[in-house]
Amino acid sequence: MEDKTVCIEFTINREKKALQIPSRMSALTVIRDILGLTGTKEGCGVGECGACTIEVDGQAINSCLMFGAQLDGCNVLTVEGLEKEGQLHRIQKAFLDNHAVQCGFCTPGILMSTHALFEENANPDDEEITKAIAGNICRCTGYQQIFASIKDACSTKTGNG
To answer: CA 20 to 30 Å from 10, out of 16, 98, 104, 143?
Structure first.
């Protein structure tokens, strides 16, 4: 069975895009393979690990579970879009300052889940933070530095983000 193609138009990291893609291509494949934004990772491919988390219209979404065609008309943010004009987003800065990254594979997804949380609630409590990153698996850390970084980013309102 031949896969049909669809035309989509959307905004990603503040840039408008118009693409023709196979109708069954995942949003993850569009982002990584067509647009070359490799910060978004494929871990499990079934929506369990969170490495592929992006923000679509302000919501944290596992891009491996979304068809690329569903991006049509949406505003998408990937980890590459957090930085503005050479300035790290406060979430990225907090992760750096707290040494919250080991291998780094999970980091983009956790950053995006945290960003979506902050868009909804600039000062989340511990339970809200835990819930926001519950879909992100990190196999290297015990989550202490990740959690500390998110708490620090809550209290840092200056700079980018």
So the answer is: 104
Superfamily of domain 5-81: Beta-grasp domain (3.10.20.30)
For the chain, the average pLDDT equals 95
In this structure, of 25-29, 102-106, 122-126, 156-160, the range with the lowest mean pLDDT score is 156-160
Phi/psi at 92 (5° precision): -60, -45
Query: What class does CATH assign to 90-155?
Result: mainly alpha
Please tell me whether residue 5 adopts helix, strand or coil conformation: strand
Inter-axis angle of helices 107-120 and 90-97, to 10 degrees? 130
Q: What is the DSSP letter of 79?
A: G
Q: What is the pLDDT of residue 142?
A: 82
Query: Which pTM was predicted?
Result: 0.94
